[in-house]
Amino acid sequence: MTPRAIYLDYSATTPLDPEVLEAMLPWLREHFGNASSLHAWGRRARVAIEEAREELASLLGVHPAELIFTSGGTEANNTVLHSCCFHSQLVDTVVYSAVEHHSVIHPAQALAERGFQTATLPVDHWGRVRCEDVAVWNRPRTLICVMHSNNETGILQPIEAVRRSAPEALLHMDAVQSLGKVPLNLAQLGVDFASFSAHKLYGPKGIGALFIRRGIPFKAYQYGGSQERNRRAGTEPVALIVGFQVAVRKALRELEHRTQRVQQLNHFLRQLLQERIPGVLFNTPQEEALPYILNITFADAHTLDGDALILGMDLHGVAVSNGAACSAGSMQPSHVLLAMGRSLAQARAAIRFSLSHDTTEEELLYAVQVLEKVLAPMRD
Ligand SMILES: Cc1ncc(COP(=O)(O)O)c(C=O)c1O
């Protein structure tokens, strides 16, 4: 087996699209002005930012004034939780699905320590929330956080049904993994807040956005200048914002083509795994999930070493991930898979393949051959 370099971790991050980089460069070189300045340099930067906001808003089906730029998904999620509880004083209870990203779970836990009521929504064996559990929290002064799609398994949550189950509560949707991969119409989904990030769709790292529905008396989480209509202080990173705009524009323009391609790849990978890896168990269903992610574990997981699996694949040049998080110096198994009812061993041995429209069948074949090779000595 000739060693290769195969990246199958596109849900962690993507490379920067050369077209995106091209669009960004003038804003790093000659048009370097601060958008808050009154002179020509500043005005040019201001126009670029507002044009980006307008285009992104129209692509998402919202009003430009409903979008603020943030440093990414983590900041957008933290902003919603902290602002709703402290700065805007809109809620006293935060409810979140058990499979949320840590940038929702950890601020919620911090809020619990400060005396706010918090609760977790359980999920079914595919990681989906149930509307009857959501309906329990249908009351004012409550923030419900349910992500659009999960970063470890790709499962899509029934957001419209969640909205209908809790019309009285505020609803926040982390759409970081979904943007540019599935059609998103925020008005139709009926959410109050939504978080986005550029680096999951070939945009630059360090830029994202937060949707705040018009009419919500939202107050800033971060103080300083009056940028973003007093809702997020800090000099706007013009080049990153333009990069974000171009990445989303391109992803949505190519949405149909990319989706078809990735669906084929997903199907191919699923078949290969089924044929060649005995005891493979899928943590991602065939329907109602992003085709970009395929998460697996093994029936004999208790005999396998999850970290060794990932590292073994890496030694052969295949980059995948397992959703484990490093906490206090040790690897913690995925909270998502545990919430779905997988055993500790199955959660520890999980592998997440995450694909791109640029992935090839040949790369997937090589990755599965490597997996066979890495599994063999562990199973012997
Ligand atoms: C679902 C989800 N939410 C939030 C984030 C955080 O986004 P960012 O890396 O832009 O801070 C990620 C990134 O891994 C994610 O997958």
Task: Describe what this molecule looks like in 3D.
By secondary structure, this protein is α/β, with parallel strands linked by helices. It folds into two domains: 6-15 and 254-379, Aspartate Aminotransferase, domain 1; 18-253, 3-Layer(aba) Sandwich (Aspartate Aminotransferase, domain 2), CATH 3.40.640.10. It contains 14 helices and 14 strands. It has helices spanning 18-28, 40-60, 73-87, 102-113, 131-135, 159-165, 186-189, 227-230, 238-253, 255-276, 306-315, 335-339, 344-348, 361-379; strands at 6-7, 67-70, 93-97, 117-121, 142-145, 170-174, 193-197, 208-212, 280-282, 293-298, 318-319, 325-327, 330-332, 351-354. A seven-stranded mixed β-sheet has the order 2-8-7-6-5-3-4, with helices on both faces. Helix 4 (102-113) links the parallel strand 3 (93-97) and strand 4. Helix 1 packs antiparallel against helix 9 (238-253) and helix 2 packs parallel to helix 9 (238-253). The model has no long low-confidence stretch (mean pLDDT 96). The protein binds pyridoxal-5'-phosphate. Pyridoxal-5'-phosphate binds at residues 72-74, 77, 101, 103, 147, 151, 174, 176-177, 197, 208.
